[in-house]
Design a protein that fits this description.
The complex is a heterodimer of chains A (390) and B (291).
Chain A (H helix, E strand, L loop, with lengths): L1 H25 L23 E7 L6 H21 L4 E7 L4 H13 L4 E3 L4 H13 L4 E3 L14 E3 L4 H16 L3 E7 L3 H16 L3 E8 L7 H9 L4 E5 L2 H13 L6 E3 L6 H7 L6 E5 L8 H14 L5 H20 L4 H8 L5 E3 L2 E5 L5 E2 L3 E6 L2 E4 L2
Parallel strand pairs in A: 1-2, 1-3, 3-4, 4-5, 6-7, 6-8, 8-9, 9-10
Antiparallel strand pairs in A: 10-14, 11-12, 12-13, 14-15
Helix pairs in contact in A: 1-3, 2-11, 3-4, 5-6, 8-9, 11-12
Chain B lengths: L1 H27 L6 H19 L3 H24 L8 H24 L15 E4 L2 E4 H23 L1 H11 L1 H6 L4 H27 L6 H16 L4 H21 L5 H15 L14
Antiparallel strand pairs in B: 1-2
Helix pairs in contact in B: 1-5, 1-8, 1-9, 1-10, 2-3, 2-4, 2-8, 2-9, 3-4, 3-8, 5-6, 5-8, 6-8, 9-10, 9-11, 10-11
The chains are: A alpha/beta (390), B mainly alpha (291).
Chain lengths: 390, 291
């Protein structure tokens, strides 16, 4: 199967080479393939649909995130195609939460002529796949990668997801100020790039705020029984437990912590920021503090409409992953219209110039490191809901 | 004391999974790698019947037991029996059981999706009590009681009952057993059914214990269970229990006294040490088959 896929990819890229080879000899100059249009911004008209591709984890450990992202993109394409002038054609492929499969998916998407690739879901995977897109000069917009070292891969790699480095210091600062946290136990899964870099950010932020780290405990992202670790954490008598882990670990960890009698606040990284935490952990989730790039309580006009539409279409509440995916396509739309072109180079240039674009996340800019800049929110679970920590 | 109890509870889950594993291995000399998928199926179906139909967990466990038994029969019929005549039946069965496990997982994903699922919060009484200064939940005690009693019942079944005698005869020599007039096919099916029923129930208890079930949980436990049955002595039921408890205890102690990053290394290192000192495993006998 792999072999077949591989040879298909080889054939695909050979075919692409042949086609581009032809077009440079015959069509020297302006291409008339409908990829470049006339006008700019709102007036931009591009004849053929702009091919947008996405690689998300629709199966495997990160499948819950991937599903939200796919839904949001479908909704975004629907909404943007109504505007007129520019239409989008969306292809979503499954990376199965497996970097090896993601590499094949990226090869296929690049060969099939994607103007821009959105994804992949996990930072872990992005570190493997994005160099391929960089080499092929295809712009990539990450909509959920928050680990360090993603946009450093190259100048074609962008993201609209606020990094842990940006969110975590704000979270710790708010927790120290409102809850008077002085001593904490830190727990993180050390076999995942995302949670590992989250841990680094927590450790740095705790140091900056002068918080004492009583103990640092590690676990594996596949773990589900945390009682041994939690009993150890309980003995240290800390004011709070700081956790960098994915949602699969978050729910059992929080539940078991409350079960063995840990009543202190639990401060989580980005992985905790999902309605699945409250749904899964129920009452145990009360008092969990999470910094976030997005909050459903935000009264941003676009966001209110997005939540309504998403809930009506999919019969489920959107989470941060869906909001960031939706905003991703809004940003791409802005970049495409700015240059009024579906060419890869034009989109890259457009993405390099994103400043205060209004999205469901608020006004988003991409800085000189191609990372997102916008305000973060610190939330606390209260009465079964994410509320703003005050 | 808390550490000791934590280790025992964790270990009893490994043991419960490993007992089903080792039963098939000990009697039929087949490694059934679909066992992890049966474990996952038990967990997810258990959640489904409790959360959708609102039936009590006490009724769900027997239901899952029956489902597991049915799956076991299917595994034996589809993945193992057609290959029985092959000279490479060991490896062929190993591979076909992996394939069968993958099919079960795909079906589960189609039915229930890839999300992490869990029992409703009130599915199980949340009672908690103190024993010698350690906090213990009712659930943990029940898991321990269920796994120990299942082990006792199984040991008795294999050692004393007519079915058990048939099993042991097959373990000794399947051809001779057939010549003696034993229904080898039916006894094999029964063995698979019992093994998978245990695996499925283990899935439910595990999920209740950690409050999370997704498609990958079976595989996380599978490797540990394999280690447990190797250390306990392949095919030995008491070995699986003791091996499970040793692994659980060593993991908990490693976390507390050495460091959480070293947990797997210490636990598996200890298992290797046992194997060096006693290559046949704790309860395994050299060159003879135990059941």
């Amino acid at each position: 199967m792999r072999k077949k896929l591989f040879s298909a990819a080889v054939c695909g890229s050979a075919l692409l080479l042949a086609i581009t080879g032809c077009s440079t000899t015959s069509g020297n100059g302006t291409k008339d393939d409908g990829a470049t249009g006339s006008g700019t911004g709102a007036d931009c008209v591009i004849k053929s649909a702009v091919p947008i591709s996405a690689a998300f984890s629709l199966t495997g450990a990160a499948a819950q995130y991937g599903a939200s992202q796919k839904n949001a993109l479908e909704l975004a394409v629907e909404d943007l195609n109504k505007v007129g002038g520019v239409t989008y054609e969306l292809t979503v492929e499954d990376d199965a939460t497996d970097p090896k499969q993601a590499i094949q998916v990226f090869d296929t998407l690049i060969a099939s002529g994607a103007a821009v690739i959105i994804g992949p879901t996990l930072s872990n995977t992005a570190k493997q796949t994005n160099p391929i897109a960089q080499d092929a000069k295809v712009p990539v917009l990450g909509v959920s990668n928050t680990a360090a070292g993603i946009t450093e891969i190259g100048d074609y790699i962008f993201r609209d997801s606020l990094t842990e480095d940006a969110v975590i210091p704000q979270t710790i600062k708010a927790a120290v100020e409102t809850l008077d946290v002085k001593k904490v136990v830190v727990m993180y899964s050390n076999d995942d790039a995302f949670t590992e870099s989250g841990y680094q950010a927590f450790a740095a932020a705790l140091k900056d705020e002068g918080v004492d780290i009583a103990d640092t405990l590690t676990f594996s992202k596949a773990d589900t029984d945390f009682r041994a670790l939690l009993n150890k954490a309980k003995k240290s008598d800390a004011d709070a437990i700081v956790v960098s882990g994915l949602i699969d670990a978050a729910v059992p960890l929080v539940t078991q912590a409350r079960e063995i009698g840990i009543d202190t606040p639990i401060i989580g990284g980005n992985g905790f920021n999902s309605p699945a935490l409250i749904k899964g952990a129920g009452k145990a989730a009360e008092g969990v503090i999470v910094g976030a790039a997005w909050n459903s309580a935000s009264d941003n006009e676009q966001n209110v409409k997005f939540i309504e539409d998403y809930t009506a279409k999919f019969d489920a509440a959107p989470d941060q992953f869906s909001a960031q995916a939706y905003a991703g396509l809004q940003i791409i739309d802005h970049a495409v219209r700015a240059e009024c072109s579906a060419e890869r180079e034009a989109i890259k240039a457009g993405l390099g110039d994103i400043t205060d674009v209004p999205t469901v996340l608020g006004d988003v800019s991409l800085n000189e490191n191609r990372d997102a800049v916008h305000d973060a929110l610190v939330q606390v679970v209260k009465d079964g809901k994410f509320a703003i920590l005050e | 004391m808390q550490l000791f109890l934590d280790g025992i509870f964790l270990g009893s889950i490994y043991a419960l999974f490993a007992i089903g594993f080792t039963l098939v291995f000990g009697i039929l000399d087949r490694l059934n790698l679909a066992h992890a998928s049966v474990f996952t199926a038990g967990a997810l179906v258990g959640i489904e019947v409790v959360s959708r139909f609102g039936i009590s967990i006490w009724l769900a466990i027997p239901l899952v037991l029956v489902l597991g038994a049915l799956l076991g029969v299917l595994i034996e019929r589809i993945a193992f029996r057609p290959l029985a005549g092959r000279h490479d039946a060991h490896f062929a069965g190993l591979i076909s059981s992996i394939a069968f496990g993958a099919i079960i997982l795909s079906l589960l994903q189609a039915l229930f999706g890839a999300d992490t699922r869990r029992f409703p919060a009130d599915a199980f009484p949340q009672a908690r009590f103190e024993i010698l200064g350690a906090t213990v939940s009712l659930l943990q005690v029940i898991i321990l009681v269920i796994s120990v009693s299942l082990m006792v019942v199984l040991t008795w079944l294999v050692a004393k009952s007519k079915l058990g005698r048939g099993m042991r005869t097959i373990a000794e020599n399947p051809h001779a057993a057939a010549v003696l007039g034993l229904n080898v096919g039916r006894i094999s099916s029964t063995t698979f059914a019992i093994s998978s029923a245990l695996g499925a129930v283990a899935g439910v208890l595990f999920t209740l214990n950690v409050n999370a079930a997704q498609l990958g949980i079976g595989h996380a436990v599978e490797l540990k269970a394999l280690a447990v049955i190797v250390v306990g002595g392949m095919g030995s039921l008491p070995g699986a229990l003791v091996g499970g408890l040793i692994l659980g205890l060593s993991e908990v102690l490693a976390v507390n006294y050495i460091g959480s990053s070293w947990r797997d290394m210490v636990a598996f290192g200890l298992l290797f040490l046992i194997l060096i000192l006693r290559p046949q495993g704790l309860f395994g006998a050299r060159k003879t088959r135990e059941v």
